[in-house]
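Weekly modeling sync, notes
Attendees: S.R. (lead), two postdocs, one rotation student

Agenda item 3: backlog of single-chain predictions. S.R. asked that every request posted to the team notebook include the full sequence so nobody has to chase files. The rotation student volunteered to paste the first one in as an example of the format we agreed on. Action items at the bottom.

Example entry:
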Amino acid sequence: PLMASTGRCRHPMSPTLTTCLLVFAAAYLQLATAFGFSPSLNPCMKRFPVGSIRSQKACSLTMSSNAMEERMQKTKELLSYCDSVYKTTRRKTRTVQCGDVSIGSEHPIALQTMTTAMTTDIQGSIDQVMRCADAGAQLVRLTVQGQREADACSKIKEGLLKKGYTTPLVADIHFAPKIALQVADAFDKIRINPGNFADGRKSFEEITYENPEDYKAELDYIEEVFTPLVLKCKELGRAMRIGTNHGSLSARTLSYYGDTPAGMVESAFEFARICRKHDYHNFLFSMKASNPKVMVQAYRLLAAEMYDLGWDYPMHLGVTEAGEGEDGRMKSAIGIGSLLQDGLGDTIRVSLTEDPWFELEPCTKLRDIAMNQKDKIWTPVPTWKETTRNFMSFSQRQGQLPLQKESDPIDIRNVLHRDGSVISAVSPEDLANPDKLYYNLGCKTAVGMPFKDLATSDSILLQQSPAMDATKERTALRRLQEVGVGVLCAAEELAARPIPNAIAVYDLKQMPGKDAKLPEGAIRYAVTVRGDESDEELAKLKSAEAVMLLLRVPDEVSRVHASRRVFNYLKENNIDTPVIHHIVFGADKSRDTVVLLTGSEVGCSLVDGNGDGVLMQAPLPLEFLRLSSFGLLQGCRMRNTKTEYVSCPSCGRTLFDLQTVTDQISKATGHLPGVTIAVMGCIVNGPGEMADADFGYVGGAPGKIDLYVGKELVRKAIPSEKACDELIELIKENGRWVEPSTNEEAVAA
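Predicted structure, as returned to the notebook:
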């Protein structure tokens, strides 16, 4: 299934029997997950990534077969999730009014963030709201978890108005219906979480519903608790966000729908139906997840369901707990940017483990990327019809990796990686300093010799073939080839200055025929495809023996839609040549812009399983481009090369210095690929939100930390100064720790 979090534990059965059951389950799931949710297998027996750790307590929820079949039948009838898959067109929505900000398709995409000050710190909250507004925030959210915070809300609003700030304020509500009623008097919008508004704190108790009637009987209580807030918001003209989080679905929803996008959508719709029953429509939806692929699928399913029902409510987009730095921006771009490319989304927040005003710059850039995509007059590609992409299910297109021939003088099989490849563009200046080049490509070195490491570029693309007498440069290329790094270069360059064992790169129109001779020294060839070729030109790929295709879409053509056309053609014609997304930037693009554009435009294809790797080319440091490329693959859940962090962005509930602690933990544990660690400021963003995590570091009380394995609390109330060391010990106890390796020559390089 798409969801990485479907598996929750190891089953206590013997390995042989477990293996048999998993093989059967895999085949069954292939049929039953036509749109991304699990059948009524015991969750203990579902597949999960090798080595992942899940809590036995989380295995008690089951879903009846009747519920599964009913939901599958309904979703099979959904036809589309956006207005057009061939161009960017904003989905038409009604307008939701939040103070003086209008949200919907007739208005610009609204930007928002969330304060990190304690809400009881009235002046601190006022100062942060003003700073965020000055940075471009059109809405600002504050946590309101109890009576003291609710009492402070009216004073915060009054203080802002006195200073001339009318920025709409949003109350973030968990577990507290009565508090929501009070704060509606002061704030402009209420965000409620369907997973805990009426159902209380996250639990994993066993609840099995045998029929829809048993499940629906519990909805009466939700209506009783929620209706007063609906009526008050309607009376006062307040807005509302019904914001589902993948990790905090209620036990009731999990029991019936499983840990799935379908459950996320239905959880929100339960509350929306109550709003509609009382003729209250000033609300919007969100479907957040820390896994961008799950998040994208959930929003697409939400949009498709609303098309089917004739609903037109706006959507708030966000990847929850995205993290910090380039990783947080990349994950946000993959999730938010991919949806904006399809015209989905009316207000956005980039959730970073940084001060809230720093969220506004990437937020603004993502909005601008989306508006440019929609408004720019693109050179059209030939007319085509999409027939192979199913938005309701995920399947990775499998490219055929290079095969070794007896006559090959080097091992060609490692020039691409089965989980997604990174190719680095190397300039003559890069090649002139071999030691630094090895380091920037992610190689380990010993006595000046490079060796491939976990995050070493799989291949390099030479912008220019070195001179025949450039001994140092040619020796560096030979040493890279000897350890499995492929060397690509334009065919005309190789014809002038041959490189032994190279891969010649041709444009599609120049692609050699079956028996044509390659340039001297070349042992394979690759083909550059633009995406705007005619069908007749693309037909040449049917007989191609290329080791890979480099998909380099011209600047005047929409990358997202040209890429879809290419992959649709390849699938229709059963062409399994690997495709590398080659995206090129000019000197006018900053690091942030490169990350956000790549995440939006390439990530949009990768979340659909279309693509075997990436080649980011820009006049920026080679190491930065390589790490960003690996970050893209990891964010799209293709290839793990480092520890994955699910880190909440902090708010007034946070019980420790989140930025400092996250930095401390990442420095101590950043060398554990395949391990996911959640760093959560409080219990609200604790076991529920960290749906994908193997280990959790959660603020339990001031100065005290709770540690989790999966979603099971295993160590409680650890003094914060000892908690990082305790986390490392916990990782070791569960067999996931390896000692960090050292590269003595890295500093010298």
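Discussion: group reviewed the output briefly. The longest strand covers residues 712-719.
Action items: rotation student to repeat for the remaining queue; S.R. to check formatting next week.
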